[in-house]
Specification:
3-stranded antiparallel sheet; 40% helix; globular
Length: 391
């Protein structure tokens, strides 16, 4: 008899709606049409039913898009489905929220069903820059929403920030950092603005409406790392910083206790189901991607089948290379034994020359048991990660 496959402990759900499209955004999301949101919620619940028997969620993450855009009734329908399918009780359950769409009743409902972490898309606390990015929320709404979430009992909140925004000066960045830290969140994610193809910001850059100042960007990153370290945060990934409020038992590597466990699972090569339009999952060595089309997604689920656009099974070496690349984004890098246990490959044989090159470039440190990126290496983690990819 074949052994039962291990249950999947990590679950991502994509909500593909936003009130307005931000200037820099390349995620799959759109301003919702009247009846599509209700259809989507039905379809998402149907997809959840189709995979529920393979799940025992330890981490759940609702991302988007703007999950907080769903109304109370729609949230109730989703959360009741989790309950009916026996999927409540995740140790970490995150919902991404836009500060303009947080409400006390939604926050209470989520807490009642076990959501225990909120990720707030703040991006900036400067009204002019929020406008520049096309965000719908105001600085005032950030403070108000944060209080609403705390009052509802959320003790683990992430604040997302962006730097190197066109026209942002170092003074703007310092003052956003100072005000964001004053909120007292447990986690910070800070991303440099990226110019993705086909975004309005990319076209503005191409048209010469502004320049990218690499020196200022680097200085902003340095300011970030130094300032947050002085305020009780520990960097554990290129763009992620968390507080440590208690020791994590049974962790094979050190991370702060408030680190996002859902993302840590990605970076360590763990498997996860991903539901919703455009969502990409990885289960049993197979990478899947759902159609990035909400209409089509609904039609498929209404027929009772998952809306999977592509399935790809990577060779074991290609998958190991990808896992190496993801994991190097974390400050701990890879312990050689840990990597071998996960992938079956030894970094010291397959990637020895690549590691030595990165050490010579001052991008990495190699010890007897571990390989990790330096401060400089983390800043250019994509360059380092590329060296580990295999076809
Ligand atoms: S709120 Fe987030 S997902 Fe929506 S358009 Fe803005 S950046 Fe993209």
């Amino acid at each position: 008899m074949n052994p039962q496959p291990a249950l999947v402990t990590s679950l991502y759900l994509h909500v593909p709606f936003c009130a307005h499209k931000c200037e820099y955004c390349a995620f799959y999301s759109a301003v919702p049409k009247e009846d599509l949101v209700g259809r989507y919620v039905n379809a998402l619940v149907r997809e959840l039913e189709l995979v529920a028997h393979e799940l025992k969620p330890r981490t759940v993450f609702f991302g988007g898009g703007t999950p907080s855009l769903l109304n109370l009734k729609q949230w109730e329908q989703i959360l009741k489905a989790f309950e009916r399918l026996g999927l409540l009780g995740a140790a970490e359950w995150t919902v991404e929220c836009n500060p303009a769409t947080v409400s006390a009743d939604k926050a209470k409902l989520m807490r009642d069903y076990g959501v225990n972490r909120i990720s707030m898309g703040v991006q900036s606390l400067d009204e002019r820059l929020l406008d520049r990015l096309g965000r719908i929320h105001s600085r005032e709404q950030v403070f108000k929403s944060f209080d609403t979430l705390r009052a509802a009992g959320f003790a683990n909140i992430n604040v997302d920030l962006m730097f190197a925004i066109p026209t942002q000066t170092m003074d703007h960045w310092r003052s956003t950092l100072r005000d964001a830290l004053a909120l007292g969140s447990e986690h910070l994610s800070c991303y440099e603005v990226i110019y993705e193809d086909d975004t309005p910001l990319f076209h503005q850059l191409q048209a010469g409406e502004f320049d990218v100042d690499e020196e200022l960007t680097e200085a902003m990153y340095e300011e970030l790392v130094t300032t947050v370290a002085g305020n009780g945060f520990e960097q554990y990934e290129v763009a992620n910083f968390a507080k440590s409020e208690f020791p994590i038992p049974h962790s094979p590597f050190p991370v702060p206790s408030q680190a996002c466990q859902h993302n840590v699972n990605y970076w360590r090569g763990g498997q996860f189901h991903a539901l919703g339009p455009s969502a990409a999952g990885y289960v049993g060595g197979v990478r899947t991607k759902n159609w990035a089309n909400t209409q089509l997604y609904c039609e498929q689920l209404e027929k009772g089948v998952r809306a999977i656009e592509s399935r790809e099974e990577l060779s074991p070496l290609a998958r190991a290379g990808e896992i190496a690349a993801f994991g190097l984004r974390m400050n701990v890098g890879w312990g050689f034994e840990e990597f071998n246990g996960i992938t079956g490959y030894d970094l010291r044989s397959e990637w020895s020359a690549d590691m030595d090159l990165l050490v010579r470039e001052n991008f990495a440190i190699r010890s007897e048991n571990r390989f990790r990126l330096t401060h400089r290496g983390l800043r250019f983690a994509d360059h380092a990660a590329e060296k580990f990819l295999r076809s």
